Known about the structure:
about 100 residues; alpha+beta; 7-stranded mixed sheet
Amino acid sequence: MSLAFTLPDEKKSNRITQTDINKGELRITVAFKKYFSANEIRVNIDNLEYIIQYEKRVGRSDIMKLGKKTMNLLRLNAGNSLNFYQISENNFLIEKV
Length: 97
């Protein structure tokens, strides 16, 4: 795996909120948009692969639509962080920090 990053970044500029968790979405800020080039992203969580939707937006954060089931697998709480490890283009392993 060649690329790794943490959401939110060290500045905590875009914290994961309870609203994000309830919606099953992650907001992807401009600093991380460059890593996601497709409208469908493969994510690996707990050794299972999921294909999720990725919504590109101009002038706002992009939206990664993980879904509530996938968010529950990550056992996220508001304020948590996630590590992303790129396996290949548009394919990531995601782990809760």
